[in-house]
Prior knowledge:
This protein is an alpha/beta fold.
Amino acid sequence: MSGMVAWKALGSGEAIVFLHGVGGGAESFDAQLSHFGAHGFRALAWDMPGYGASPQLDAPGFTGWADALRAGLDAEGIGDCILVGHSIGGMIAQTFVARHPERVRTLVLSATSPAFGNPDGDFQRAFIAERLGPLERGETMEALAAAFVPGLVGRAATPDITASARASMARVRPGTYRAAMEALVQFDARATLADITCPALLIAGAEDTSAPPRVMERMASRMQNARLVCLEGVGHLGNLEQPDAFNRAIEAFLGGL
């Protein structure tokens, strides 16, 4: 534990830091920690505040999460890093690099977007009703995971991968999940995309309907130094569905810098 943040970590060397999605946790990046930790990196994955061993913030939201990340990196003695953010973790990464550009040497954004839209829009209200309505009716996180995870993965995902993702989401505390959903629909970082100057890799899943490749392609075009890689047969959970391809994409990008 570092301040408000609990970490899983392996290896030594240049720091590469992984931020998980709404239904994940530090364990979501076990395949990345074992790979990069064995290949010359200090690989760390956080439990986002409210997840795993990390306590919830008094006021959850992107600014607070970015501040918690900074404090966690400070406590670990990490000045700058390769920052990898998946889904809502990618949104936190965007917030963090906008507030602390000197702390991010290289940025990797996976299955994410620069905005969710107007929190009062019809789509957003329907999204919240769909994702939180079952909890309000007394259903469990296990039931939510069973309903939603199969629609997140692509055709190449094995039953074991889907089951692992379901188990991870089922462990999320209902209050944590609710806070993340409510913050998600308010996210909008489009105005700061052009200010991101560090090298950036965007990883899309060809079968991802939550953060489609076309959205990430437009996102990359608005950044100063970004490129897009699309993983075939992959849905929203590329780091879990095809970890070797995911890791190779990051390695190839870093090797080309």
